[in-house]
Write a structure and sequence with these properties.
This protein has one domain: CNF1/YfiH-like putative cysteine hydrolases (4-Layer Sandwich). Helix content is about 20%, strand content about 25%. It has 7 helices and 17 strands. The chain has a 6-stranded mixed sheet. A 6-stranded mixed sheet has the order 6-8-11-10-12-16. It has a 3-stranded antiparallel sheet with strand order 13-15-14. A hairpin with a 2-residue loop joins strand 1 and strand 2. The longest helix is centred in the first third of the chain and has 15 residues.
Length: about 270
């Protein structure tokens, strides 16, 4: 696994990914997991961050401890949601810490926002697109889970709009990261999916998909999400977009398509300093 746009770091047996622009802004702690460096085994090996894939709770908690330790984040600060491919984005505070880890998770929430230090936002992935946000001026962070359904629903734009409406953020100040997801090289979809993307008026299908001889399409989820973020007013120079395909790199990153559903989950974590 190599990248020209993201930082891949290996330390003390743990491999993780960071976004250069989020690191450089010096306002957040953040980390994106790989499969390397955890304690899980088999299909979950070895860094699985999901409690509902069949792995033991003890293993998942230990994996979170390892990942949080590398990021300098307290596991008790984490806030997880139950993601269901919606465009629902929830603002959270200190009272929500431990949700999804030590107390019941939110349901039908695919994005989280906070302006509180000590509140670490977590979203999970295995081919869908990770989106991370930071406004270092207003000191607001967010993370959203954007599969093809979430991308069609423009959850990235919903997240930016909520940052603007609730906290007075200006899009030109927002730094965004688009994390590892299934690449155009591996993501074959049918007319149902493509026709849903045709409903986004400012996206030209030719910019995000290639039609195949069999009538299906190869879809570029990362490109679609970048167009949505640009349309939301985020400056191109403030976006780190991944060039890593989860499916091509399924020995190092959990991929639903590559594993045919037998897998764990990756996680993105972001917290204000």
């Amino acid at each position: 696994m190599v990248s020209k746009t993201l930082d891949i770091i290996t330390k003390d047996g743990l491999t993780y990914i960071q976004f250069p622009r989020l690191t450089a802004c010096n306002a957040v702690k953040h980390i994106f997991s790989t499969r390397i460096g955890g304690v899980s085994s088999g299909d979950y090996g070895s860094m699985n961050l999901s409690f509902n894939r069949g792995d033991s709770r003890e293993n998942v908690l230990k994996n979170y401890e390892i990942l949080c330790g590398a990021a300098g984040i307290d596991i008790n600060d984490l806030v997880l949601s139950c993601q269901t491919h919606t465009s629902n984005v929830r603002t959270v505070t200190e009272s929500d810490c431990g949700t999804g880890i030590f107390k019941d998770s939110f349901t039908d929430v695919d994005g989280l926002i906070t302006n509180r230090p000590g509140v670490a936002l977590v979203t999970q992935y295995a081919d869908c697109t990770p989106l991370l946000f930071c406004d270092p001026v207003k000191r607001v962070i967010a993370t959203s889970h954007s599969g093809w359904r979430g991308t069609v629903k423009q959850i990235g734009a919903v997240t930016v709009r909520k940052m603007i409406e609730e906290f007075g953020c200006r899009p030109e100040n927002i730094i965004a990261g688009i994390g590892p997801c299934i690449g155009q090289c591996c993501y074959e979809v049918d007319d149902i999916v493509i026709n849903a993307f045709r409903e986004i008026p400012y996206i030209d299908i030719a910019d995000i998909a290639i039609k195949k001889e069999n009538g299906k399409y190869m879809l570029d989820l990362a490109a679609a999400n970048k167009l949505i973020l640009l349309h939301s007013g985020i400056a191109p120079e403030n976006i780190d977009a991944s060039d890593i395909c989860t499916c091509c790199n399924s020995t190092e990153l959990h991929s639903h398509r590559a594993s045919r559903g037998r897998r764990g989950n990756l996680a993105a974590i972001i917290e204000l300093k």
